Prior knowledge:
By secondary structure, the protein is mainly beta. It has helices at 39-51, 53-56; strands at residues 3-8, 23-28, 68-75, 78-85, 100-107, 110-119, 122-130, 135-138, 144-147, 154-161, 166-172, 178-185. It has one domain (33-185): Sandwich (Jelly Rolls), CATH 2.60.120.
Amino acid sequence: MRMPITTSESTDPTSAASDAAVTTPVERPPLPVLGPPTTAGLADLAGVLARRGDIWRPLVRFSESERFYTRVAGERGWDAWLLTWLPGQRTGLHDHGDSAGAFIVVSGVLEEFVATPAGSGTTHLTRESFTPRHVRSFGRRHVHDVVNSAGVPAISLRVYAPVLTRMRRLRIDEGGRLHVVSQQRAGDDW
């Protein structure tokens, strides 16, 4: 059975079509229904979305001024986002509020720096590189910074459950303690 799905593009200030958001009805086969959200289920869904280029490839944009991102799918308690990365672009240290998630790199290479407890209330960053088809799932308390430190653009897909509604921006002080810098909410800040 094919279901009509409507997608909305986020505007990119560097693209010619940035004067207004574009909404285009598209016929697509349905995405799988996500059962109770587990990190394994989110990782599986990220893999399915990566293979469904018909959903996200038409939305790919790159912006020199900031990372480009747009919501590409979502239903029944989850949502998925496309993120594009030029060399040097990064997320900054953040969490995902009450959402667990998974991401998959579909092209390029991304590095993740994860805030890891080091004892006595301190935190240090551990680093891992992700290449195409590499999936990373994470729980609700995951704090990380993701960066494109390679010399080529990168594309990733992210899946969150429940739907991503807030994020906190964080920093690690000289003593290794984690601090909230700001809070961001869907609809207000992205």
